[in-house]
Amino acid sequence: MDRKAAVKANSRHETGILAFTLPEDAAHRYLSRMVPEDTRLIANIAPKHDAYKGDAPFTHLELTEPETITSNLGKTALCSEGTATPEGKRLRSCVDIYTHAFEPGATRIYVRSSRGLWGSPTLYGGSPRARTTSP
Fold this sequence. Notes:
Largest sheet: 6 strands, antiparallel
Oligomer: single chain
Strand order of the largest sheet: 3-4-5-2-1-6
Number of strands: 6
Structural class: mainly beta
């Protein structure tokens, strides 16, 4: 399993990104704890071009941008007030979640959270300094 995360901040907002890989069955268990049962992950029907770089790009973590993936990708957005799951209620800001079954039996989960810097807590907590972790 790989795990990578970073936080990007400027004077107006902070964006946290997290990506990790799980075996397919563990990914389903993780998502079932985060995503409400009545929420369906949708396919990427309008992929971005290969050179796309989002506000806080996953390419910084040496990963493909989920918005450019054209097959085996599901995506949804969650906010703490929109989910009844215990894990979902712990969110401190809204998140975009992408799942990519990139090889048989393995799923990479991407999470991106953005929020303003005017005193509200972040998804990851802590200061707005950029940081990256990898095993």
